[in-house]
Amino acid sequence: STSRSAPGHRGAIRSSKVGGRVRYEHRVADVPLTLRGRANPSSCFTERPPSRRRKGRHRSLAGKSAMAEAAILEQCRLHPEGIPDQDLAQKISHIPVNDRAQAINSLLSSRKLQIYKDGDTIVYKLVMQEEAVKFRGLASEDLLVYQIIQQSGNSGIWTKELKQRSNLPQAQITKIFKSLEARKLIKAVKSVSQQNRKVYMLYELEPSREITGGAWYTEHEYDAEFINVLREQCEKFIVGQGKVTLDQVSDFVKKTKLSHVELGKEEVLQIVNTLVYDGKVDQFDEHQKGEGDADDAKGDGDVGNDERDYGDGEKVTYYVPAAYPVPEKSAFTSVPCGVCPVFNECRPGGLISPETCVYMEEWLGLGMDPVDS
């Protein structure tokens, strides 16, 4: 048994020969290191205790990462609508920046966390369990397309714009569309303004009125008959009540269920405005002095059972039957001279003259048939 130092290593090596093999024991800072072999002991070392220390260090890092992930998930649970990056950093300021970044990347890759931008702000949001199941098996490109569609809201996004934002080839985008539609994550909707263009939005969203045309379109076609029915019924209600507000007309439309879709005040106002423009209804504004001061058409102080308090001095718009209704047809609106293409060449005694005009004879009711002449 001998004791010597190995080149390039601190401490002493003690060797002993057992059964033709040499056993070396190296001590570094009182930590035994065992070597076995026939050759120079400095050629290979197996330092067992430091290996155990490395494992312990890995376990420590894994524990820190798990604690950071748990803290991030807890903050996301407390803010189900999403938490901005700055707020999250303040809430978990005790966690180092590098540990926080690693934990966020780990949660994103495991589909437990989703990230999106609200303006210039980065927001983190917890992925619910049922949502995580829907996204299981999707590639990163699929999720990228889904997030871009999600950001478009109920206005949707069309293929060309999505291609520009994702930088993905058209063939791959088409394939991703089919995959997401099969999972019922997105849907394609035709736009009324551009019927040859389809926009994509999340499956559970209702398209905006700019896309569907609102209540005035049925199956992407303008529903003129439905609008005429609404006009007639609203006109009858205003004439029957004498003096009404927009709220009363809106309540009347809802109670009578004239529409198979729910109409808001904006749509009802559009209908009432057409009656005003056609001269069937008059509108005027009146400042209220207080509750109950407004009089109805009969002057008995009851405004069509409208119990709303409009407040002192608030301006209220009323609709009443037209004082001077505009007739649908009159002699002045149907005079043939107004639409005559040769009006400038017409003169008494000329080749084209009022005396020989067959349309003038018909307008005056003199019995001449323009076709027979």
Mean pLDDT: 76
The H-and-E topology, N to C, reads as EEEEHEHHEEHHEHHEEHEEHEHHEEH
The share of residues in extended strands comes to: 15-25%
> Could you give a short account of the major beta sheet?
4 strands, antiparallel
The SS-based structural class is alpha+beta
Q: Distance between the terminal alpha carbons, to the nearest Å?
A: 142 Å
> What is the gyration radius calculated from CA atoms?
42 Å
| Rough outline | elongated
What's the total number of strands? 15
Give the % helix.
25-40%
Across the major sheet, the strand order is 1-2-3-4
SS field, number of helical segments:
12
Overview of this protein structure:
The chain has about 375 residues and is of the alpha+beta class. It has twelve helices and 15 strands. The strands form five sheets. It has a four-stranded antiparallel beta sheet, with no helix packed on it. The N terminus and C terminus are likely disordered.
Give the helix/strand layout.
Layout: E1 2-4, E2 12-18, E3 21-28, E4 31-37, H1 48-78, E5 83-84, H2 85-91, H3 97-109, E6 113-118, E7 121-126, H4 129-134, H5 140-151, E8 157-158, H6 159-166, H7 170-182, E9 186-190, E10 198-202, H8 209-212, E11 217-218, E12 221-222, H9 224-241, E13 244-245, H10 246-256, H11 265-277, E14 281-287, E15 315-321, H12 358-364
Antiparallel strand pairs: 1-2, 2-3, 3-4, 5-7, 6-7, 8-10, 9-10, 11-12, 13-15, 14-15
Helix pairs in contact: 1-3, 5-7, 9-11, 10-11
